[in-house]
Amino acid sequence: MKKQGLHNPAVMAVASSPQGQKAIANTLDNANATVNATASIVKGVLKTGFFLGVGYFVYKKIFNGFSKLSEDRREKPSNISTGMAKNKAEAIFSAMYGFGNGFKSVKQNLMGVNHNGFIRIYNEFGQRKGINPLSKKMTMIEWFADQFNPSELMELRFLIPHFF
Q1: What's the pLDDT score for residue 58?
Q2: Would the pLDDT of 24 be above 80?
Q3: Dihedral of CA 75/80/85/88: which sign?
Q4: How far apart are the C-alpha atoms of 52 and 154, rounded to whole Å?
Q5: Contact assessment for residue 128 and residue 143, using Cβ atoms and an 8 Å cutoff
Q6: Which of 154, 145, 84 shows the shortest CA–CA distance to 114?
Q7: What is the mean pLDDT of residues 9-14?
Q8: Is the pLDDT of residue 11 over 80?
Q9: What are φ and ψ of residue 138, in 5° steps?
Q10: Nearest-5° angle of CA 31, CA 35, CA 38?
Q11: Closest to 106 in 3D by CA, of 118, 116, 115
């Protein structure tokens, strides 16, 4: 049977001396300080995570995370004005909103629009909510993916390449 405890007489002598008792007390104090510091750090990390989470939630609720695309300088300048882009965005939304998908109207509004013109329409469209009260806000490209079948999307890809 194995004996437990301190069996070395030298260790027993040091541990029972006043300096040994002081060293043991310092070790216990250091251990307690370490535990308290760790608990403090954990509390700080949890508070920071909580506030970051609340901040992200507020940002998503207020701004909904939509960021406009900037026009591509490598492509030709937009062939439509901002006003025309706004009108086209409204027409596209009206065509897709409600029953049916209004593909012909959407296609008609995108014909003849170049790369940067499409970016202007996309930015003017922004994010919009569907007819269903439980639906989330979607960008124009998300609306296209939601409303159109693959063959219709292929036709739109032919008109405006590299977007969807």
Answers
A1: 79
A2: no
A3: negative
A4: 41
A5: yes
A6: 84
A7: 63
A8: no
A9: -130, 150
A10: 135
A11: 118
CA distances from 33 to 22, 37, 42, 125 (A): 16, 6, 14, 58
Q: What angle do CA 27, 31, 32 make, to 5 degrees?
A: 120
98 by DSSP, 3-state: which? Answer: coil
Looking at residue 130, its amino acid is G
Does the pLDDT at position 66 exceed 90? no
- The pLDDT value recorded for residue 8 is 66
pLDDT tens profile 89-115: 999 999 998 787 899 999 999 999 999
Q: Give CA–CA dist 133/136, Å, rounded.
A: 8
Amino acid letter, residue 118: F
Handedness of CA 90, 91, 92, 96 (dihedral sign): positive
CA distances to 72, 153, 157 from 147, in Å: 27, 9, 15
